[in-house]
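Milestone M4 deliverable, item 7.
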Amino acid sequence: VSTNPAGRAFTVDDIEYTSAQTFHWDISSLHTISTTSPQSTGVGTRFVWESWSDDGTMSHDVSPETSTSYVATFTTQYQLTMQTAANGTASPPTGWFDAGATVSITATPDAGFGFNGWTGTGSGSYSGWANPASVKMNAAVTETPAFSGNVTVVVKSSPAGRSFLVDGTTYS
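Output delivered:
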């Protein structure tokens, strides 16, 4: 009896184990194998039960008639922490995502404010100006949006009607 990935907790006949175990049972004897979900290991990482190799429920009885293996498979998940920031909101809210998932993040400034970039930490995080942006859940990720007050800028030519360029766009 084991887990994939290795090291997750499981029980056999109400005794907990965290490493692969070999048992020698009488043919067709009844035993209970089970696990729990989710299982955490450190900050920002958890494992969610997916299935047993025999398609049994999370806790179920087995009575093997031949030598067999039972493997509990877990999905690795990492936490995306969305920090709060003054003058706006960010989505999605803090939550758990499967390892390797790409998650779209969006910052929404309050009225009268503008988005001023992301600061991210963790493998796969994003730092920069894109909005929306994407993070890759390679580990626990923290994202912090920044917002600042907007200013009004008037650009005009003198004399009026002359062409001018602002951020690559021509105006007259």
